[in-house]
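Illustration: Secretory lipase.
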Amino acid sequence: MSVRRALSTVLTVATAALLVAGPSAVAQVDFYQPPSPLPAGANGDVIKSAPVNYLGADATRIMYLSRDTAGDPIPVTGTVLVPSQPWSGPGERPIVAYAPFTAGLGDQCATSKTLVGEGAGDAAALFQKLFVDALLRKGFAVAQTDYQGLGTPGDHTYAVRASQAHATLDVVRAAQRLDDAGLPADGPVGIAGYSQGGGASAAAAELAPEYAPELDIAGAYVGAPPADMSVLAESLDGGLYIGFLGFALVGLNEAYPDSGILDLANDEGRRVFDEARGKCTLDAVFSFMFRQTSDLTVDGRPVADYLAEPPFDAIVADNLIGTRKPEAAVLLEHGPADDVLPYEQARQLGRDWCAQGTSVQFNDLDVLPVFAHLLGMPAATDHAANWLAEVFAGRPGPGNCGQF
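Result:
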């Protein structure tokens, strides 16, 4: 996609967002309440499902079993979408696990709601739909996850490696087992995501051989991933997107409840922490931009200082992506001028995978150096759909390890 076309797409989506006065429907709140106790079952088993309206696809909202970071069973929601047109490609219809980018922490922001005009998403919800529609146009079925705690009870474990990987892999299993979806139980699988979704896609690709070895994963598209929390804690602090760092701290607190993250916060820090729990993406950006975490901690030190010390250094290490080998081919893309997630940490991720023997194609996203992270989204959408079509046709390409 050209820079001009990318910018045009972004402006079109932003304009459309301003015209949306509110949600077009009320989300099925009861659907998002899991049964208590959770039913026994395997990872990816469908707990419940309900049809939803989606133009050009047969869509089903699902709740399925997955695992949190500690390995305990949890309910996760999402959407399975099957294109209305028959599959015309080779073999069986592929399923692509779509890992959404940052939707927010409030339950109203869950992608399974905003995709179908429910909830209360913002412009981010429209970008999610662009990504899903690009995959559907290729004839792929799409299995979209909300991740842990987004829609369902508890805080969303934003940017937490293991829980996002589990949710992304288990939504494919759920799609394969969904009655009446007509999807193959052992057909080809792809993974795709950008930004937060890029991190989830990356984590799922490298955890799949251990967590879901039966899935026939042909390739993973990883766009602008947050791979190293130690880098992000410093780069986001005090900037336009510090709200995302707040999201990550809420997620870490949920995933590691004994870590004492809240003990670091002063009264204002606790207020901001609680406020972040209910916000969608743009609301968080505008509410918290340019705040300094040193103003929110009990001793005036920035969050990055704490993350370099016990016990938080072990948590950061546990969430580092790149220490495991994806067996599937990977297309990894990032914009050199990205203003949210540093380019070099993504390039290092590619090098780490190459060193372990993964076939990696690393490309720069060619977008304007202004709001480069946002502008990368529409480009990533096209690249992911086109590359996965090549992968499913048996043409993933040789990769370019050693050249970046």
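Reading the tokens back as a structure: Confidence is low (pLDDT under 50) at residues 1-27.
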